[in-house]
Q: What sequence folds into this?
């Protein structure tokens, strides 16, 4: 019998079962019209959820479920000779998925880009032999299931050689990204979570406080986030769904931030 719960809407694990999920009650998320619902790993498994591992490019993998668990996010696994980073842990796992992850190497850290992506991070850590769970210090208060493997972090953190975590903020004060220097054939990859959202046109990105509820960030914050990630070269960007900017992503981010700032400043009000 599970003694902890998963929010059926956002898939974040909880020690207790509050009336409404703390993550979903926030203005950045939503509670369904049918009301708050909770589930468990056992219930999800019995309902026939399947998890799969997909290759995105050399040494980069995605974990997805069918049907969606939570809002349909996906995890990324960055594989290096020194170990594996589990980024944006999904809110589901089973023995086969854990075995598939373990087969890629030792997971040295479980890290979510922001509280919407905590998923079942504690369960992942426990099933991976107590891998450290790194939580951005400014967002530490959003954790809903405690564990001794949780440690907070700030600034730039090289979690594996050539794999650097940092916190541009924006979407949440501690919203984080991963810079992976060896990605995209050595041209660099940015894993952007919801900090920077890859748009469906694949040539622009967005910067929002809330994506589902359309709450914008200011132009100044969009430009701050863009300048932060532009410190390091990268050619490709992946968000926490299937969104990708396949090439030229650093320029796309800078150009999109300038566009965001221009629109929020009113430069284009004549077009409205
Ligand atoms: Zn929730
Ligand atoms: Zn989010």
A:
């Amino acid at each position: 019998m599970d003694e902890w719960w998963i929010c059926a809407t956002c898939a974040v694990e909880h020690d207790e079962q509050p009336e409404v999920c703390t993550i979903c009650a926030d203005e950045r998320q939503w509670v369904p019209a049918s009301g708050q619902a909770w589930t468990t790993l056992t219930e999800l498994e019995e309902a026939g959820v399947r998890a799969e591992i997909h290759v995105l490019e050399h040494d980069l993998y995605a974990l997805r479920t069918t049907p969606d668990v939570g809002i349909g996010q996906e995890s990324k696994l960055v594989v290096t000779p020194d170990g594996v980073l589990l980024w944006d842990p999904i809110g589901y796992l089973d023995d086969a998925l854990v075995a598939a992850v373990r087969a890629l190497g030792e997971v040295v850290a479980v890290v979510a880009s922001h509280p919407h992506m905590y998923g079942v991070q504690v369960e992942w850590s426990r099933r991976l032999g107590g891998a450290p769970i790194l939580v951005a210090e400014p967002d530490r208060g959003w954790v809903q299931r405690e564990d001794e493997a949780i440690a907070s972090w700030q600034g730039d953190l090289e979690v594996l050689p050539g794999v650097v975590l940092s916190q541009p903020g924006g979407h949440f004060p501690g919203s984080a990204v991963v810079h992976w220097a060896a990605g995209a054939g050595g041209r660099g990859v940015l894993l952007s979570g919801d900090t920077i959202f890859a748009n469906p046109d694949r040539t622009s990105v967005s910067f929002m406080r809330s994506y589902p509820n359309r709450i914008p960030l200011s132009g100044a914050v969009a430009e701050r986030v863009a300048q932060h990630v532009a410190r390091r070269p990268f050619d490709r960007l992946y968000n926490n769904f299937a969104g990708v900017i396949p090439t030229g992503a650093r320029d796309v981010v800078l150009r999109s931030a300038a566009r965001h700032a221009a629109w929020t400043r009113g430069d284009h009000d004549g077009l409205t």
